[in-house]
């Protein structure tokens, strides 16, 4: 029989995708499920973006492109950093890939391997640890607490550094917590990083999705010299409701972007030509659809904060960015709900799905047992009825 490579033992399937699949399976049997697992905006991709894709097809822009992406898109991404953060980026430093997840994979493949450690503050986005393992490097998970705002302090970082530390991965605004590093906190972390030889992958995919006047900062721009050791990740998936188009990017020091481009040229050639032209329109075209989506997310966030406050025996800190609420449900551990003995976040999610038909993601998938993640990238009606069901289950 065909034997899998050793590597197959290092990587687990995406837990968020597994929960979404479980919810979908239940839905397919005709049961109504309130699906709060989704990590993608439920809005359609803006029309101007779709039209740009149609134009690209009509104009025959349907062939291979340069491996690292079409020149106008790389230029537009470079301009994004110079105009938003005063960070001078040469288009050669930008590599466009099949989604930000692919950009992170390429960056990790370029920068780490067996013997290296990668520091990841928890709660972290599910894929980080698995993508690090895939390179043969070792993820070193550093827990942060709700009391610390789920932020990595400079001292915690210093304590985590060993001679094998190669990289630190940060994500602000964060999936799953919605935490954002204020400028001063991020500068203090940057100073601690600059005391070491550690490089940084800064995942800024939720950079435009912030609330209550909070602002996300481009990490690489905060101190001189930081850009030489930082790979900045972002993309169009979340901001422009374009998850299916698969366009993300990395902005990296030239030697790193050169290798990432070479790697991609062997791995996947280039991201879809049509999607790249669409992404160019998203970034350079009118932004009114984005403002509308953000307005809707803002309303939902307020609603979710209000509803979570009404849930029995839970606690949480309102998210400042992204579209998730990360809720502590530990007080319900030890209960039996609808025949399910709730002992951890996974069994809590099983109980919620079977008793309340509410699909959530367990905190353990993010390295934070005791919590569950609710996505509010879903309509008000679903949110309302889902919270009713969840509320009744927790009272019961
Ligand atoms: N980074 C974070 C923190 C995310 O939450 C996601 C998507 O869920 C991604 C990266 C991946 O984005 P993309 O769809 O562009 O691959």
Descriptive tags:
Aspartate Aminotransferase, domain 2, four-stranded antiparallel sheet, 12 helices, 396 residues, seven-stranded mixed sheet, Aspartate Aminotransferase, domain 1, 39% helix, alpha/beta, binds pyridoxal-5'-phosphate, 2 domains
Q: How would you characterize this protein structure?
A:
With 396 residues, the protein is an alpha/beta fold. It folds into two domains: 6-44 and 289-395, Aspartate Aminotransferase, domain 1 (Alpha-Beta Complex), CATH 3.90.1150.10; 48-284, Type I PLP-dependent aspartate aminotransferase-like (Major domain) (Aspartate Aminotransferase, domain 2, 3-Layer(aba) Sandwich). It contains twelve helices and 15 strands. The protein has helices spanning 15-28, 47-58, 71-85, 100-111, 127-134, 154-160, 183-194, 254-267, 273-284, 288-309, 345-356, 380-395; strands spanning 34-35, 94-97, 117-122, 138-143, 165-171, 199-203, 230-235, 248-251, 315-316, 324-328, 336-337, 340-341, 358-359, 361-362, 371-375. Strands 2-8-7-6-5-3-4 form a seven-stranded mixed sheet, with helices on both faces. It has a four-stranded antiparallel sheet with strand order 9-10-15-14. Strand 14 and strand 15 form a beta hairpin. Helix 4 (100-111) runs parallel beside helix 5. The longest helix is centred in the last third of the chain and has 22 residues, at 288-309. The mean pLDDT is 95. Bound molecules: pyridoxal-5'-phosphate. Residues 39, 99-101, 125, 171, 175, 203, 205, 235, 237, 243, 248 line the site of pyridoxal-5'-phosphate. Pyridoxal-5'-phosphate is lined by residues 39, 99-101, 125, 171, 175, 203, 205, 235, 237, 243, 248.
């Amino acid at each position: 029989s065909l034997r899998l490579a050793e590597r197959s033992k290092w990587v687990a399937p995406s837990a968020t995708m597994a929960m979404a699949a479980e919810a979908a399976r239940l839905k397919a049997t005709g049961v109504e499920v309130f699906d709060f697992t989704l990590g993608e905006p439920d809005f359609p991709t803006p029309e101007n973006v779709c039209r740009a894709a149609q134009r690209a097809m009509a104009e025959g822009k349907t062939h291979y492109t340069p491996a690292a992406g079409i020149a106008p898109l790389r230029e537009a991404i470079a301009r994004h950093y110079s105009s938003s953060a005063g960070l001078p980026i040469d288009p050669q430093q930008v590599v466009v890939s099949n989604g930000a997840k692919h950009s992170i994979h390429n960056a990790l493949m370029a920068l780490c391997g067996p013997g290296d450690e990668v520091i990841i503050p928890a709660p972290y986005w599910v894929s980080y640890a698995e993508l690090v393992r895939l390179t043969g490097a070792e993820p070193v998970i550093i827990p942060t607490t709700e009391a610390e705002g789920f932020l990595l302090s400079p001292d915690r970082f210093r304590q985590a550094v060993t001679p094998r530390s190669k990289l630190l991965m940060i994500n602000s605004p964060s999936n799953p917590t919605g935490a954002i590093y204020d400028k001063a906190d991020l500068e203090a972390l940057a100073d601690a990083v600059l005391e070491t030889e550690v490089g940084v992958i800064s995942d800024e995919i939720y950079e435009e999705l912030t609330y209550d006047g909070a602002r996300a900062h481009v990490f690489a721009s905060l101190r001189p010299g930081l850009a030489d050791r930082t790979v900045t990740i972002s993309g169009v998936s979340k901001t422009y409701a374009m998850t299916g188009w698969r366009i993300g990017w990395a902005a990296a020091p030239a030697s790193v972007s050169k290798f990432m481009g070479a790697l991609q040229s062997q791995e996947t050639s280039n991201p879809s030509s049509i999607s790249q032209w669409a992404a160019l329109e998203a970034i350079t075209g009118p932004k009114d659809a984005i403002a509308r989506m953000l307005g809707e997310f803002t309303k939902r966030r307020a609603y979710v904060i209000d509803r979570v406050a009404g849930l029995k025996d839970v606690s949480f800190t309102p998210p400042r960015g992204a579209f998730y609420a990360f809720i502590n449900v530990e007080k319900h551990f030890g209960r039996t709900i609808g025949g399910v003995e709730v002992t951890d976040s996974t069994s809590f999610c099983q109980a919620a799905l079977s008793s309340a038909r509410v699909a959530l993601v367990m905190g353990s998938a993010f390295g934070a047992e005791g919590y569950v993640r609710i996505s509010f990238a879903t309509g008000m009606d679903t949110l309302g009825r889902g919270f009713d069901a969840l509320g009744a289950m927790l009272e019961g």
